[in-house]
Every structure is written in structure tokens, then in C-alpha cells.
Write a structure and sequence with these properties.
By secondary structure, this protein is α/β, with parallel strands linked by helices. The protein contains eleven helices and nine strands.
Length: about 300
């Protein structure tokens, strides 16, 4: 495999391969001497056309831990501001000898377009409302760590399913690994076509009763301005993950959130930092999973 463009095109075996690789990668992160020479001599570029903290820093830290050389392109200070096309930016990076390009872009399908001509490996770090494959992989890795398996689990995804690339990648991945997926949220934010992959339950109070995992999506606050939700207060009333709602769930419920959180909107702080939450673990697992992605695409020997 040369590129990682989305979960939809991966097989079950591909996903399991990455998850299995992530385990020794996490061991590297936890040991005293963290750096390994696996990607020494390789050059990785990060190219983010949208703001990011967790994903960008995670990909960059993963590259450094594997001894790759890193080029972090600041789009706001690059020749993009002078009118340079995306294609020319890629050609420029390739001319510098870059082996892999991690890209986030606001338009759907940009990584797929780049893969059609780029000699470097293209890694999708989120494209529009399409996919966010590395986020889904780290979510699955976190679930697997806590539950020991994914097949047969019932996983609830709450929030703006329509516009969320995180939701789409998670739904594809969970289906491929044999989990049952339930989605919940306002009817205005759940497209009908999701029925092909998931059960829809508009009542969060009902949906949460018998699930093993709940993945709470960040509510994009700009949706309030488009009339798709009436108010943040109403959203929290019906779809916020509160401690009261968690009381009616299974005792071993696992709570996930891709971040950043809108505390008091889609999730309450006491739930986010409760013993049921693995939100902080998701951050560290993100580095391990992205190290596994680099290994899969660029080769090397496990340390």
C-alpha cells in the first residue's frame, strides 16, 4: 500500500494489520528512550490547510520518534498565499525529496486527487466532510485496548453525523470489523443514507442503555448559525453526554471523543474526565497509530 486515503477502501485485514502494528509502537512511546531509527533517511511533510492541534502534532511527533526528517509547511506563510496551486506545492515538496505528505484540506477528495500523480505517499489527515482515517484507526485501537475485541460490540456515535468525517471513517471501520453501529443526534444532522451502515436512534436516552462504547462527536458550532439546531442549550438537553445519562448505561461503558471538546455542549466535564473516559488515551494512542501508518507505507523493521 502506497497511500492512506480513507477507511472505505481498506480491507478488514488492512485495518487489523495497522492496529496490530500500533501495539509495539505504543511500547516505544512508553519506554525511557523513545526514539527508534526505523525511518532514518526518510522525509515527511505535513501540509495542513485547516487548523489542527492533535492530528498535526501527532503526525509530526510520530515522524520524529521514528527518526524521519520533518518538513512542516506553514500554509499561511507559504507560496500558497502568492497563488501557488496545490499541485505545484506537491511538486515542490517532491523536488525536495519528500517521501510522504500528510495533508488536511477543506475539500472532499483532495488526497485522492494528489495520489493520482504524486510519487510520494499521501496520507489523508482529514478532507472536507469525507474521511479522517487515522482518527478512526486510533479510536478502534483504543476500543480494542479496553474491550479486548471489536467484533460483536455495540458502538454508539452521537452528534453531527452528516458533516463529520470522523463519523464516516468510524462507521466504515466498525462495520468492517464486525461491530454493530448505532447513531444518535438531531434528525437534521443524520442523513438517511447512513441506514445502510448503522441503526438510527434519535433518542440518546434510549440509545445509550445497551451500548458498549459511546463516541461523542464535537459539535461544529457554526451549525447553529445554519438553523440545523435550535440552540446549544437545546442540543445539550437532548444530546449532551451528561453524568445522569451515563448512569443508565452499562457499568463498563467506554467514552470516546475525538477532540477538541465543547464542554457543556456535547459532553460534560465530569464525564470527559471520569473513569469511563479514554479521551486522554486517544491522544497518546494517536501517536502510536500514526507511527504504525508510517511503518506500513514506508517500510522499516520493527524495533
Amino acid at each position: 500500500m502506497k497511500h492512506l486515503l480513507g477507511i472505505e477502501e481498506l480491507s478488514k485485514e488492512d485495518i487489523l494489520y495497522i492496529l496490530n502494528l500500533a501495539t509495539p509502537m505504543k511500547d516505544i512511546i512508553l519506554r525511557e528512550v523513545k526514539k527508534v531509527p526505523t525511518l532514518r533517511g526518510k522525509i515527511i511533510a505535513t501540509l495542513f490547510y485547516e487548523p489542527s492541534t492533535r492530528t498535526k502534532n501527532s503526525f509530526e511527533l510520530a515522524a520524529k520518534l521514528m527518526s524521519a526528517d520533518l518538513v512542516s509547511v506553514g500554509v499561511s506563510t507559504s507560496s500558497v498565499q502568492k497563488g501557488e496551486s496545490l499541485k505545484d506545492t506537491i511538486y515542490t515538496l517532491e523536488a525536495m525529496g519528500v517521501d510522504a505528505i500528510v495533508i488536511r484540506h477543506s475539500r472532499n477528495g483532495v488526497p485522492n486527487y494528489l495520489s493520482s500523480f504524486s510519487h510520494a505517499s499521501i496520507i489523508n489527515a482529514g478532507d472536507g466532510q469525507h474521511e479522517h482515517p487515522s482518527q478512526a484507526l486510533l479510536d478502534l485501537f483504543t476500543i480494542q485496548e479496553h474491550k479486548g475485541h471489536i467484533e460483536g460490540l455495540k458502538v454508539l456515535i452521537v452528534g453531527d453525523i452528516m458533516h463529520s468525517r470522523v463519523a464516516k471513517s468510524n462507521i466504515y471501520a466498525l462495520n468492517k470489523l464486525g461491530a454493530k453501529v448505532v447513531v444518535s443526534g438531531p434528525p437534521t444532522l443524520i442523513p438517511n443514507e447512513v441506514r445502510e451502515y448503522a441503526e438510527i436512534c434519535y433518542s440518546l436516552d434510549e440509545a445509550i442503555k445497551d451500548v458498549d462504547v459511546v463516541n461523542v462527536l464535537r459539535l461544529q458550532l457554526e451549525r447553529q448559525q445554519t438553523g440545523l439546531i435550535n440552540s446549544l442549550q437545546e442540543y445539550h438537553r437532548f444530546y449532551g453526554l451528561t453524568s445522569e445519562r451515563v448512569k443508565h448505561a452499562k457499568n463498563d461503558l467506554l467514552v470516546l471523543h475525538p477532540g477538541p471538546m465543547n464542554r457543556g455542549v456535547e459532553i460534560d466535564e465530569d464525564v470527559a474526565y471520569s473513569e469511563k473516559s479514554a479521551i486522554n488515551e486517544q491522544v497518546s494512542n494517536g501517536v502510536a497509530v500514526r507511527m504504525a501508518i508510517y511503518y506500513m507505507l514506508m517500510g522499516g523493521k520493527e524495533q
